Amino acid sequence: MASAWKADAATFWMQQSARLLWREAPTQAQAGDFTGTAHVTWFADGRLNPTESCLDRHAAARPDACALIWEGQDGRTIRLSWADLLQRVCRMANALREAGVAKGDRVALHLPAVVESVVAMLACARIGAVHMVLFGGFSAEGLADRLDDGTPVLVVTADEARRGAKIIPMKRTMDDALSRATGDSVRTVLVLAVTGADVPMTAGRDRALGPLLDGADTACAPAILAAEDPLFVLYTSGSTGKPKGLVHVAGGYMVWASLTHEVAFGCGSEDVFWCTADTSWITGHTYVVYGPLANGTTVLMYEGLPSWPTPGRWWDVIDRHGVTVFYTSPTAIRAMKAEGNDILEARGLDSLRVLGSVGEPIGEDAWTWFHDHVGKGRCPVVDTWWQTETGGIMIAPAAGAVAPRPGVATRPLPGVEAVLLDAAGVPVVGEGEGNLCLAASWPGQARTIWGSHDRFVATYFATYPGHYFTGDAARREADGYFRITGRVDDVVNVSGHRIGTAEIESAVMRGEGVVECAAIGVPHGLKGEGLVVFAVVQPGGAGEAALKALVADAIGRYAVPEAVYLVADLPKTRSGKIVRRLLRKIAAREIDALGDLSTLADPDAVGRIIAVVQGGG
Ligand code: 6R9
């Protein structure tokens, strides 16, 4: 049974810790819990270096077996054996050390989907530096905010990135970010040549990475870390304030990455595992890098988009490299579905064994199409629910053990105590809906928010004392399966990107003459959710285009709203609270279902807003 682990949890967890290669094996599992200051540790007296679990032990046992296959947009392929990958990581680790990086220092990684993005993460881990991977889609200001928060000593970026037919000016954006950052922690910028473009180099700060790697030694003694030493900081958005840097640690996170990768996908060393996530997302951390490599699984990485230069490119990648497990997002699945089935029918896809989905609710349509057409009816679809904060998969139909069902994440993995609580904190027993909480710690949980443990406690443990609150709601169905119903806070999930509406609103508020505004999410056929902004702007003030540009500048183009409606006023309660529920309905054009408006300060405002939305804008 799924709860067999509970009878003797400590023994279960100690057994799981043995997945890793330790320098000093831990003697205890969990200490601390979710009460009070929520300080939890796992395997605290163990000592290890995560890269020895991910590389050295496989390089010793199977040096020539394939560790990583990378295919570029242009068709170029790189195959690295475990021995090759270990050498590459050691070279990069030595280059970082040579550039002055020490154990505990933060290193910002801002790279496209090239082999070096994985190598650089592992190189940081090799020397005990804490990586913070930054999304290539962040604007200069978005990057600057995170640099100021994480205070890295060194940045690794690329000259440019390729994205379909587009070229993304990575170095230029990073230069802009560094000039906006108020802190001055960054001493060195290493620049990887990806396209070979000429980019400006700042004397005394910027160095070409290539020559540094060429001159570096291929062996690098690993720094030995305590299990609770930080492995990385990764930024994500919440309902309030600036992005928060979740801190994951060397021991427990690695145990969770390895366990969940094996259990959710039934994955082992015979598999070719392709997780399409970018390494700047938690999914890339756990299922492109740490989970599969810890388990000795061959990792496939592809540089580009699903349908560039031609539709069906991802299917070709699967056939070419014999991918056995394919893990992607509902957004990608919906986009590929929209291309029609002819493209798919022309491909074999015979190597596939398991399919996975992550990042947003998949919905029955996309699930069924994925199952029937991509998996040809024979591959289980594993819908995996989890978060940046949880480190790894939490609720999913463990491949082979739990029967999947369309659109349902199904059951918590062993070690996960998922509960549903109502608004008053009373557990929802049996069938019903509630706020999804975790009643006990697990090794992979984030330990804190970088620089602010108080914010960590306030964000996750204040709503329901003694419980971690996920920010999602879920429904427990008659057979005990969990169906995730979506965020209950002010976070909108656009194509799997978590965007806090407060961040959007603060960008829009900078617009000329903007009096007030509200950002909300609405259902979107391809992206899952789309953002819509309602803004009250004085005559002669900023228009829709100017307000969208402010969002692109402050956060990145991926966060630009679908529409900005300029309205005379926002619907408010008599106490002055904006009624977002109404705005969501109006933006989704569900105006028959607005409900009782009599509690509004000015019920007539609603009609005027509807007129703007129906007028198209
Ligand atoms: C791994 C990841 C987390 C939020 C989460 C939830 C949504 C993720 C989901 C899902 C429904 C799934 N989410 N997986 N919703 N079904 N299978 O996505 O991390 O970027 O932190 O986002 O994404 O709302 O709370 P992150």
Tags for this entry?
seven-stranded mixed beta sheet; alpha/beta; five-stranded parallel beta sheet; single chain; 617 residues; GMP Synthetase, Chain A, domain 3; binds ligand 6R9; 30 strands
Distance between the ends:
55 Å
Q: What's the count of strands?
A: 30
Average residue pLDDT: 95
CATH superfamily of one domain: ANL, C-terminal domain
The CATH topology of one domain comes to GMP Synthetase, Chain A, domain 3
Strand order in the largest sheet? 5-4-17-16-18-19-20
Beta-strand content: 15-25%
- In helices, the fraction of residues equals 25-40%
Number of helices, where a helix is a run of at least 4 consecutive DSSP H or I residues: 19
Radius of gyration: 24 Å
> So what's the overall shape?
globular
Question: Main beta sheet, described?
Answer: 7 strands, mixed
Broad structural category: alpha/beta
Q: Which molecules are bound in this entry?
A: ligand 6R9
Give the CATH architecture of one domain. 2-Layer Sandwich
The CATH C-level name of one domain is: Alpha Beta
Spans with pLDDT under 50 lasting ≥5 residues?
Answer: none
